[in-house]
Design a protein that fits this description.
Number of helices: 8
CATH architecture: 3-Layer(aba) Sandwich
CATH superfamily: Vaccinia Virus protein VP39
Order of helices and strands: HHHHEHEHEEHEHEE
Helix content: 25-40%
Distance between the termini: 24 Å
Largest sheet: 7 strands, mixed
Shape: globular
Structural class: alpha/beta
Length: 200
């Protein structure tokens, strides 16, 4: 992984093309990740509605950071694994039905067959060796479960990292297809991001 999942998410939520001076503390990261202005383009409530979550569902929020989506998911499901490699930020991701998982760059460290939905928002493009990472995710997904990818379109935008750092929709589809997944849904209401669902 070229940078921490948290740093990538911070880049994603900053209202700039690229953040030249990244935050130096968990408090600074959390402030950026939770910036209320993010809601206007991230549309978290619409994302949750589109996912059609079930009360019995278990979600793994990969690159959870300080819990922007994690805490929202916890209002709708049975359990959320908040997965990140930054221990200080995970300490801020607390609440009922939330279990923090201190991951490694190459391993989400999720229990086998434990998750209905793996949710990856704005961080996939910074995971190295994604083919191996997808295999680890596949082992954590229950039969019939899904992977959900939300990430930036590969072009210059007012938010997120530079275009050169991004993955195109076609690349993501190709990688997940090679890992044994097929696309089951695509949502198009986000202004800067694609929003795709996959199952094995």
């Amino acid at each position: 992984m070229r940078a921490s999942l948290v740093f990538v998410a911070a880049l994603a939520s900053a209202q700039v093309h690229h953040q030249q001076h990244p935050p130096r503390s968990a408090d600074e990261y959390a402030k950026i990740l939770g910036d209320p202005s993010r809601d206007a383009w991230q549309k978290p409530q619409e994302v949750i509605e589109a996912l059609k979550l079930k009360p019995t569902e278990v979600i793994a929020d990969i690159g959870a950071g300080s819990g922007y989506f994690t805490r929202r998911f916890a209002r709708h499901v049975a359990k959320v694994y908040a997965v990140d490699i930054d221990e200080a930020l995970l300490a801020k991701t607390t609440g009922d039905k939330i279990e923090a998982v201190l991951a490694a760059a190459h391993d989400p460290k999720l229990p086998a067959a434990s998750v209905d939905t793996v949710f990856i928002c704005n961080v996939l493009h910074h995971i190295d060796h994604r083919d191996a990472y997808y295999r680890k995710l596949a082992g954590a997904i229950k039969p019939g479960g899904r992977i959900v990818i939300v990430d930036f379109h590969k072009r210059q935008l007012a938010v997120g990292p530079p275009a050169a750092m991004k993955l195109s929709e076609d690349q993501v589809r190709g990688e997940l297809s090679a890992a044994g997944f097929h696309q089951t849904a695509a949502h198009t209401f986000l202004p800067h991001q694609y929003f795709l669902e996959f199952k094995r």
